[in-house]
Amino acid sequence: MVTDNLILKIEATLQDLRPSEQKIAHYVLANYEQVKFQTVSELASNSHVSEASVMRFIKRLGFKGFQYFKLSLASTTNQANSQRLKGITADDSTEEIKKTIAGNCISSIQDTATLLENQDLEQAIELILSSKEILIIGVGSSGIFAQTLSYNFLRIGIIAKYISDPHLQAMTASLIKPGDLVIGISHSGSTRDTIDAIKLAHQKQAKTICITAHLKSPIAKYADVLLCSFSREDPLGRSAGRGSISQLYVIETLTACLYTKIKEQADHCRQTTAQAVLGKLY
Q1: What percentage of the chain has pLDDT greater than the value 70?
Q2: I need a surface site. Which of 144, 170, 229, 263 has the fewest CB within 10 A?
Q3: Beta pairing class for 161-163 and 134-137
């Protein structure tokens, strides 16, 4: 696992860890400067878990051994803890809310940029450009971004079908063929409708790209490429601007990267599609 900030990676996987692993994660997040100098036994004792749990935690993060984990931890920055994200309270003024939302959005974009691996973006671009047909799925708020991605693709000449109805998603995914691509967007990575469609496509040997904020979530099992957004969000979904902006950042980044690969075609299609709707404007 390669990342500029291991702290962010741990936070992105926190909700999907086992209870004993969450104890270790919480301890590491609160004491990572000290953990860099601890042994396996010390980390286990301080986290109130077994040494075996520590090793499972290390392997779950993708490291071969404890020393690799400490080396990555030693080279990480304190970016994740430098600006704790704020929530909105009933007593906040309009000006305070503006500043809170702006700060949260900026921080989430920066964190997502850190977690979004270059090689994953490049693999996603290769799949998109080599696919025969593309299906984009998502429900709820993620469905809005799935539709946005379909629109972005259309503007640069890539035809990608967006389907919002869960039944039609499953039916279409069941007819997917090898060489086709399904892109699933789920902030939680646990949305059953989206997972079911991605699983069907995976079983049909189609390629899959998943955009989620939870690296160890159920949808990740069926992803050929996983694009990670980042958002600290409580169980009630009070994200205060964080979840939406991180998903939008991934979508816009993916679109921009695609544009650079097909610039001549994209420029022609952008001009053509713009002319097609000129009559719709006053």
Answers
A1: 90
A2: 263
A3: parallel
CATH number at residue 62: 1.10.10.10
The whole-number pLDDT of residue 2 equals 40
Q: What pLDDT, on the 0 to 100 scale, is given for residue 239?
A: 52
Total number of domains in the chain: 2
Structure tokens at 221: 């099992």
Q: What is the mean pLDDT of the chain?
A: 87
Mean pLDDT of 171-194: 93
Residues 71 and 183 occupy one common structural domain:
no
- Does 245 lie in the same domain as 123? yes
First vs last C-alpha separation in the chain: 52
Alpha-carbon dihedral 236, 239, 240, 241, rounded to 10 degrees = -150
Which residue range forms the structural domain that includes residue 48? 6-80
pTM recorded for the entire structure: 0.78
Q: Are residues 144 and 240 in the same domain?
A: yes
Question: Which residue from 159, 148, 156, 204 is spatially nearest to 179, judged by alpha carbons?
Answer: 204
